[in-house]
Amino acid sequence: MTETAYLIYNPVAGSCGERRAMRIADILRSYGSDIVPMATDATGAATRYAHEAVERGIRKIVVAGGDGTINETVNGMAGSGVTLAVIPVGTVNVLSKALAIPANVDDACRLAMKGGSIAIDVGLAGDRCFTLMAGIGFDALTIKNLDPVLKRALKGAAYPISGLRTFITEDLPLISVKSARHETEGYFVIAANSRYYGGRFGPTPLANMQDGLLDFCVLKEKSFTEMLRFWISSIRKEELDEPHAEYFRAEEAEISCPSGEQVLIQTDGEMVAELPVRVSVLPRALKICAGIGA
Q1: N or C: which terminus of the chain has fewer CB atoms within 10 Å of its end residue's CB?
Q2: What is the dihedral of CA 281, 286, 290, 294, to 10 degrees?
Q3: What's the domain range around 90?
Q4: 100-145 pLDDT, tens per residue?
Q5: How far apart, in whole angstroms, are the C-alpha atoms of residue 75 and residue 57?
């Protein structure tokens, strides 16, 4: 019996496009599966398609797109036992880098249809799933203010530029973070499931996508000097020294803004909510085709 797989693709993600998506579908079919292409046409479409695939009993969903499309898809299938495969044709493709998924389309298709899968943790920010990280405060404002033209031109390098602009123009309220064993405050919080944040760098170099924990990084100062040190340390894959930043691991944490000001939340680069939020982890909740362990 021929296996049926959904191909969810974003026709405007990175270098995808309709023609390339159809080529990807043909390559996937060459491995003997029935491929059903599903183009996203609005926010939430990938989540809807993934949920439909699960309901239909489809056992594999392939995503051709970037981290945003992957994030939407995961929100429709996490915990279902359905296998996710990724063809990385987005702008930065952080998850693919973290899991050694080939950048070459033919190799990625081979992995998607013939490679093995692993089970990775999935984070939750409220009821929103993420595979990479939830960023709260400065991080989310940086993404909100990101110029899409600059992102396409500079890819990962566009984020520090947007960060500098955000730091100069935006106010950063104090954020409270409370877990079972830790309580702290800061101006920028990352709850990371992966050691990669943007490209091949990140502020949580010890994060592991299979340990059942999230790695929290809380930047406790908001001066320009400390923000600059944060980004430099992230690029070098180093942890900042306390008291400027605090790191801890936990299964969950309650995050709020004591002053009641609006503080935004992003998950995997997508704006999703505002504080307060409970951030937690679902251990081994996603099966995904990967080149290496997480």
Answers
A1: N
A2: 20
A3: 4-115
A4: 999 999 999 999 999 999 999 999 999 999 999 999 998 888 878 7
A5: 17
Q: Quick one: what percent of the chain has pLDDT higher than 90?
A: 68
> Is 242 a member of any domain?
yes
**Burial tier of 293 (Cβ tally within 10 Å: 0-12, 13-18, 19+):** exposed
Tell me the pLDDT tens digit for each residue of 241-273. 556 789 999 999 999 999 999 999 999 989 999
Torsion angle of C-alpha atoms 177, 212, 290, 194, degrees rounded to 10: 20
Whether 286 is covered by a domain: the verdict is no
121 occurs within a structural domain: no
> Where does the pLDDT of residue 226 fall: very low under 50, low under 70, confident under 90, or very high at 90 and above?
confident
31 to 27, 54, 213, 289: CA distances (angstroms):
7, 22, 36, 15
Identify whether 25 is part of a domain.
yes
Task: Tell me the CA distances in angstroms from 206 to 93, 177, 215, one per residue in order.
Answer: 20, 20, 8
Supply the CATH number for residue 9's domain.
3.40.50.10330
What is the pLDDT at residue 232? Answer: 66
β strands within the chain, DSSP E: 4-9, 34-39, 60-65, 83-88, 117-125, 128-130, 133-137, 175-178, 183-186, 188-192, 214-219, 245-250, 252-256, 264-267, 270-274, 277-289
